[in-house]
Amino acid sequence: MGPFDRGILLLYTTTLTLLFMALGVFLAGWPDPAKRLWGEINTSSNYEILWTLVVVYVIMGLRLLWKSLKPERRKQAVVHEGGLGQVRVSLAAVETLAEKAVADVPGIKEVKAKVESSPRGIAMHLKLITAPDINIPAVSEDIQKKVKDSIYNVVGVTVSEVRVAVESFKTAKPRVE
């Protein structure tokens, strides 16, 4: 549940709690405040405001109902079965590991990694921004081997494919001294 829905939930539950507290006070034998409040609200000049509130609260209630019934998408993870139980490594962690393995390669300025599952293990897609003076086929082959070895050594999962896409070239700006 995101911050927007949490805000709706806070407003919705606070309002309902206050309404039911007022109902409890009314049922407990102290009807004057509730009658006075109802008399103030129940005037023809306030009908537009009341209908607006009714529509807003019905929409908020339907949204909260929809959010509570909608199945939450589980984050995928790489699962490794050990002798003592299951070990899960999130795909975001695997992506970070691949990015760190590539960041040390000379000539690589930026890297974004994305992991997808494949029948033979996991597939890695790397988007690079490199220096313009590198040999891309040689560096790509080095990157593929580094990523495959790094993920296998740390996570214990075989990387079946490492795709490398160079999206742009970036030159380093000279330092001003």
From TrEMBL:
Superkingdom of origin organism: Bacteria
Any matching Pfam family: Asp23
Keywords, alphabetical: Membrane, Transmembrane, Transmembrane helix
Top-level taxonomy: Bacteria, Bacillati, Bacillota, Clostridia, Eubacteriales
Record's protein name: Putative alkaline shock family protein YloU
Residue stretches spanning the membrane: 7-29, 49-66
Keyword Transmembrane helix (UniProt): yes
Family designation: Belongs to the asp23 family.
Source species of the chain: Desulfallas thermosapovorans DSM 6562
